[in-house]
Amino acid sequence: MKNDYNYIDMREDVPLPNSKICKLISFFIFIFLQFTTFVVSLITLYLYDYFIALLVLVLSFIIMGITRSKISNSVISATQREYQHSDKDIANYYTVKEICFKS
Question: What is the rounded CA–CA span in Å between residue 25 and residue 88?
């Protein structure tokens, strides 16, 4: 007899955007998720002080972590949340399921 509570579904393939505009949107979301933390910290370092830039770095890690988890939980199915997904996977899921979906 198979125990259902010990069973995790196999990982599904990440949906890929089809059109060029959807690929571009997915790329911009990926860049946003990946590099916003460092860009904001470098701008703060340039405009203010090291101490403030360090605080902004920590705060932006927290904010981007929350943003990343909200985006991934809104588009990735409940069975696939058990697995780790990269920022590119999250951007592809979000673009295909929320922006460039087929009706």
Answer: 11
**What is the pLDDT tens value at each position of the chain, 103 positions in all?**
455 566 666 777 788 888 899 999 999 999 999 999 999 999 999 999 999 999 999 999 999 999 999 999 998 888 787 788 889 999 999 999 888 876 4
- The CA distance from 48 to 74, in Å, is 36
Domain that holds residue 22: 16-99
- Tell me if 7 is assigned to some domain: no
| pTM summary value | 0.80
Asked whether residue 11 is assigned to any structural domain, the reply reads: no
> Could you write out the DSSP letters of every residue in the chain?
---GGG--PPPPPPP---SHHHHHHHHHHHHHHHHHHHHHHHHHHHHS-HHHHHHHHHHHHHHHHHHHHHHHHHHS-GGGTTS---HHHHHHHHIIIIIS---
